[in-house]
């Protein structure tokens, strides 16, 4: 079995587009449809044809290109059952535990409500990769537009159960701003301090800070660290339930 290929490219002001290609079957999927032109350009440059759209959620910077790409390529659109009525052109609905395949590669779907009520993520354990949309970001997590802190914390715990070396492909380049907030709640986290330098250097060179790994996020992302005594102390919630610490951290980020 040949390696699964992931091609990453910028879209809109701070989104990432992703094409996933299986060389053996020749099949290609795009993760979301932030912007039609860069997706076509990326397909054409590699001589790939679009077979599938794997949507994570309904927001326009994720599903806005669905109908145009479907009419141009005849691709099949897969998206969250919980939000089927808001995913343009959806052909197949999926939810927790469902499997979506690209040739011989299988992606497990998880329901991750919080950012929206119908957000899903795609995890391919064989390839060690996960596409997490706007649920988890490098050093951040999605805003709670349609869900509660408890829902989002439950969603993030599903991602936390993946192996540490899993490559996490999130949908936005928000890392530098996220790092400033992360340092405000865990100023003495040595891993975070050194990661912050790496992030600034990468952005200085014009390089993406995505993908990240789950292991690195666990050591540095405040939204995955409500159990950190240092974080709990900084926000004044030592010994409080993890979901309460998570909720307060999210609130503080909204006001930051
Ligand atoms: Zn979104
Ligand atoms: Fe988004």
Brief overview, please?
The chain has 9 helices and 14 strands.
Protein structure class: alpha/beta
CATH class: Alpha Beta
Distance between the termini: 47 Å
N-to-C series of helices and strands: EEEHEHHEEEEEEEEHEHHEHHH
Percent of residues in beta strands: 15-25%
SS element count, helices: 9
Query: Which small compounds were modeled alongside the protein?
Result: zinc ion, fe (iii) ion
The helicity comes to 25-40%
State the fourth-level CATH superfamily.
Ribonuclease Z/Hydroxyacylglutathione hydrolase-like
Query: What sort of overall outline do the alpha carbons produce when their principal axes are compared?
Result: globular
Q: Radius of gyration, rounded?
A: 18 Å
The appropriate CATH architecture is: 4-Layer Sandwich
> What does the average pLDDT come to?
98
- Indicate the low-confidence ranges by residue numbers: none
How many structurally independent domains?
Answer: 1
What is the CATH topology classification name? Metallo-beta-lactamase, Chain A
């Amino acid at each position: 079995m040949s390696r699964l290929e992931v091609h990453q490219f910028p879209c809109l002001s701070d989104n990432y587009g992703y094409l996933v290609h299986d060389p053996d079957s020749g099949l290609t999927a795009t993760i979301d449809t932030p912007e039609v032109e860069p997706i076509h350009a990326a397909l054409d440059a590699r001589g790939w044809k679009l077979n599938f759209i794997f949507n994570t959620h309904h927001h326009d910077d994720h599903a806005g290109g669905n109908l145009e790409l479907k009419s141009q390529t005849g691709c099949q659109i897969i998206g969250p059952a919980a939000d089927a009525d808001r995913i343009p052109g959806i052909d197949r609905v999926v939810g927790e535990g469902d499997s979506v395949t690209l040739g011989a590669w299988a992606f497990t779907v998880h329901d991750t409500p919080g950012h929206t009520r119908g957000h899903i993520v795609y995890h391919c354990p064989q390839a060690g990769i996960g596409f997490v949309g706007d649920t988890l970001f490098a050093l951040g997590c999605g805003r709670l537009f349609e869900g509660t802190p408890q829902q989002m914390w439950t969603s993030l715990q599903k991602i936390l159960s993946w192996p540490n070396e899993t490559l996490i492909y999130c949908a936005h380049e928000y890392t530098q701003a996220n790092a400033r907030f992360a340092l405000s709640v865990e100023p003495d986290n040595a891993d975070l301090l050194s990661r912050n330098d790496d992030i600034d250097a990468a952005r200085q060179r014009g390089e993406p800070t995505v993908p990240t790994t789950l292991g690195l996020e666990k050591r540095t992302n405040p939204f995955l660290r409500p159990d950190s005594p240092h974080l709990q102390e900084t926000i004044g919630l030592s010994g409080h339930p993890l979901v309460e610490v998570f909720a307060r951290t999210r609130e503080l980020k909204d006001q930051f």
